Amino acid sequence: MSDLLQLTILIPLYNEDESLPELHDWLVRVMTENQYTYEILFVDDGSTDTSWDVIEQLARRNPHVRGIRFNRNYGKTAALQAGFQAVCGQVVITMDADLQDSPDEIPELYRMVTEDKYDLVSGWKQKRYDPITKTVPTKLFNAVSRWVSGVPLHDFNCGLKAYRQKVVKTIAPALYGDMHRNLPIVANWNGFGRIGEKVVQHRARKYGTTKFGLERFVNGFLDVLVIGFVQKFSKRPMHFFGTFGTLSFFVGSVLAIWLIVEKLINIAQGVKFRNVTDNPLFFFGLVAIILGVQLFLAGFLGEMLVRQSLGKSSDTLIAERVGFLENQLPV
């Protein structure tokens, strides 16, 4: 066993002040029963209720509690990214703060990472208590995610997941937008291919209302497609744009040359011919040449942006922290 804590429970949240004390006490009970060394890290994503006050109270009661508060709402991905950068546990468990994820699942998730040697274990809420307006889009999103990524999970968006620490430290810099829905894909993309799945209990929401609407699923579909593209071409955009640009330029050039040769032959044979611009192929060729040049330039500019963006820092702003020592502050 290393000097690190066995477990970090990472909980991103937004306006969940009612559920936090109950969730904290449940987690402490599970940690105590299993004799884990642990920390509970709450990341308050700019809540407008009293969530941060509750976190400060919990941190005063329990030295294992730490907290990060954003100055405004940045989204769940940013909250997870900040948490991933700050975690100390060998195994990192992420879960939602709304009590729909059961802390009783943690021991088996921990065992699957430490004993079965999974890089990541994702929860699968096989039986859900969500309305049909959420369950149907979820099934469609998961089907598209499996098809695009090749990762055979049933539930990509389940908040209850377990990671080896190395996984979260590696993927944290690559997160942006709404990529929290696609963390298994990002992990697989970064070489962590041992991804498992565990059927977990899904509980009905006890307090408050859901923060997710249908537009989140539309964004999720788009993010999956973006990740599929980025996974293949983020480090070599010229391979994508340059290939199609070269092909388009070649087709346009062939059409232009063919039209020129046809006109010269007609002139040599004294055959009456129509103007080149009257031939629709002239415009197809012209468009293909212009499009080819633009795609090639897009690939070139993409290569330049990739080189300049390496190591670019996040723009999220942390307003407060609680429970951290100086050498524990996330960068």
Structure, described:
With 331 residues, this protein is an alpha/beta fold. The protein folds into 2 domains: 5-232, Spore Coat Polysaccharide Biosynthesis Protein SpsA, Chain A; 237-309. Helices cover 48% and strands 14% of the residues. The chain contains 10 helices and 8 strands. It has helices at residues 20-33, 51-61, 76-86, 106-114, 132-149, 165-171, 183-189, 214-233, 237-269, 280-309; strands spanning 5-13, 38-44, 65-70, 89-94, 120-124, 161-164, 195-199, 318-322. It has an 8-stranded mixed sheet with strand order 7-5-6-4-1-2-3-8, sandwiched between helices. Helix 2 (51-61) links the parallel strand 2 and strand 3 (65-70). Helix 5 runs parallel beside helix 8 (214-233) and helix 9 runs antiparallel to helix 10. The protein starts with a strand and ends in a 9-residue tail after the last strand.
| Extended strand count | 8
Q: Bin the strand percentage.
A: 5-15%
CATH class of the largest domain: Alpha Beta
Mean pLDDT: 82
| Count of the separate structural domains | 2
Overall geometry comes to elongated
How does CATH name the architecture of the largest domain? Alpha-Beta Complex
Largest sheet: 8 strands, mixed
The CATH H-level superfamily of the largest domain is: Spore Coat Polysaccharide Biosynthesis Protein SpsA, Chain A
Task: Note the run of SSEs as H and E.
Answer: EHEHEHEHEHEHHEHHHE
- Report low-confidence residues grouped into runs of 5 or more: none
Count the helices. How many?
10
The percent of residues in helical segments reads 40-55%
Distance between the termini: 26 Å
What class would the helix/strand composition place it in?
alpha/beta
